């Protein structure tokens, strides 16, 4: 079945450091890939998505590229801020819409001054 | 355009009681999904519904849990005879039926259930 593997956290960085959170997946067919962010006590917010191979999703300085050959969708940001501290979830969804999302276990990011 | 709404935000129940969680999807969205997040874990799919139909309930526990999405009103996740292991955050998400955004699910703030 479908699965998502994320690097374990917590990840602790200093402000303005570079961020990479690894995500790899196993899926049949050609899923869409997503990154969601969860701030303490809140629901999940869509951060970015990519729907086909070689697509790059980007938002708020975060980027991720859909790599079919390595089945990966790593999240990157060149310079993190304290306000980026949150839990980040990688997820995959079925093609054609209307399908469940399969989530990774989440990676907690802490950014310090 | 209001987002996905869930209520209550926090719910406390004693073992053996019933819990009812409500979800109103975003305007124009006809697909609703329920997920459960146990402490320190990711989200696990429970059920996917369209109006008056359960499409996929492969993630629902076989007993005590049920879900509905009536023609009028919010979607309801119902847990009968709650046990301590049901304590978790329950998230609802919605997506549109068609269009370029149909694969994207938008999440509500969640209901945090605590069973004493």
Could you give a short description of this structure?
With 113 residues, chain A is an all-beta fold.
Most strands sheet of chain A = 6 strands, mixed
Give the % helix of chain B.
under 10%
How do the helices and strands follow one another from N- to C-terminus of chain A? EEEEEEEEEEEE
Strand tally of chain A is 12
The residue-averaged pLDDT of chain B reads: 92
Largest interface (CB within 8 Å) is between:
A-B, 25 and 29 residues
- Give the rounded overall mean pLDDT of chain A: 92
Shape assignment of chain B: globular
The quaternary structure here is heterodimer
Structural class of chain A: mainly beta
* Strand residue percentage of chain B: over 45%
Largest sheet of chain B: 7 strands, mixed
- Helix content range of the residues of chain A, please? under 10%
Tally of helical segments of chain A: 0
Beta-strand segment tally of chain B: 11
Walkthrough of the structure:
The complex is a heterodimer of chains A (113) and B (116). Helix content of chain A is 0%, strand content 50%. Chain A has strands at 3-6, 11-14, 19-21, 23-26, 32-38, 44-50, 56-59, 62-65, 75-77, 86-93, 101-103, 107-112. In chain A, strand 10 and strand 11 (101-103) form a beta hairpin. The model of chain A has no long low-confidence stretch (mean pLDDT 92). Chain B has 116 residues and is mainly β. Chain B has no helices and eleven strands. Chain B is globular. The A-B interface holds A 32, 34, 36, 42-46, 49, 51, 89, 93-106 and B 4, 6, 31, 33, 35, 41-45, 48, 55-56, 58-59, 91, 93, 95, 97-98, 102-110.
């Amino acid at each position: 079945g479908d699965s998502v593997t994320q690097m374990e956290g917590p990840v602790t960085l200093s402000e303005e450091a570079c961020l990479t959170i690894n995500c790899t997946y196993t899926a049949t067919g050609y899923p869409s890939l997503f990154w969601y962010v969860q701030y303490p006590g809140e629901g999940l917010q869509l951060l970015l998505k990519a729907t086909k191979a070689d697509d790059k999703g980007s938002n708020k300085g975060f980027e991720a590229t859909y790599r079919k050959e390595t089945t990966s969708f790593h999240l990157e940001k060149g310079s993190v801020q304290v306000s980026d501290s949150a839990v980040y979830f990688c997820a995959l969804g079925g093609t054609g819409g209307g399908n469940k999302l399969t989530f990774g276990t989440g990676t907690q990011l802490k950014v310090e001054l | 355009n209001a987002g996905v709404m869930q209520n209550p935000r926090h719910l406390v129940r004693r073992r053996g009681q019933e819990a009812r969680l409500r979800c109103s999807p975003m305007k124009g969205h006809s697909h609703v999904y329920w997920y459960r997040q146990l402490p320190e874990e990711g989200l696990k799919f429970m059920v996917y519904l369209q109006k008056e139909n359960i499409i996929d309930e492969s993630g629902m526990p076989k007993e005590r849990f049920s879900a509905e999405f009536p023609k009028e009103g919010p979607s309801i996740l119902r847990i009968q005879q709650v046990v301590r292991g049901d304590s978790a955050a329950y998230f609802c998400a919605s997506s549109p039926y068609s269009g370029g955004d149909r694969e994207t699910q938008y999440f509500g703030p969640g209901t945090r259930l605590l069973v004493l």
